[in-house]
Write the structure tokens for this entry.
Amino acid sequence: MTAPFIMVAPNGARRGKADHTALPVTLPEIIRTAADCQKAGAHGLHLHIRDKSGAHSLDGGLYREALSELRRVLPTFKIQITTEAAGMFDVPAQLACLQQVRPAWASLAIGEIARAPELGDHIYGTCTEHGTKVQHILYDTKDYALLKDWQTRGIIRPEQTDVLFVLGRYLRDRSSRPADLDPFLACHQGDARWMLCAFGAGEHDCLRYAAEHGGDLRVGFENSLVGPDGQTWPDCAASVAALVSALNSSAGLSHLSQSLPIGG
């Protein structure tokens, strides 16, 4: 089994200190958590930034500051910014974020971009123009069908093929099972990179299942605060370390090497 790329998502858009005291909110906390997770075996960071009140933000200046500091402290760590709307931002705000930040790597939820389909060509064209690698966030097979339609129509550029499958996000109990991945795999053909994230206590079981099927993995407090036994992780790095250990044990790997050729 090829060692998967492991991305850590330590905070997300909605959780805060009330959910877990070790959840990083400030930039120093995010950097410290990223460093700990890199030591634990993660290869990259899914970056959410917060404003002064601790709320989810797409502010270009805050993003540029965070990226600069992360590159200075963790020069080999891959950084992906999110453009998640989180019920707060419209599509023009997401476009403005991409234009202002010009990140090396960004995630875009195609269902969110579809709220303003007339901007789709502009958004994906902006990413191509600025050299931003795109990872499409897909919550269900309807999102996958939309992705294929926009690829066929040329809205999504030929090189923009990478996807993240999300399990459990819209379920009432936000729980996930490995079998929930199967409908995505039935749709997915070709050599395009794919990654999985899964909500709830089933997160690690789902991630191990994804690794067995050749997927890359996203793990962290954005998706689950607890392990398979229902016990709360002391911090995000503990979750990463446990996943790496489980993957090493099941695959007989001495280490998990970085495998995704994306510049930070």
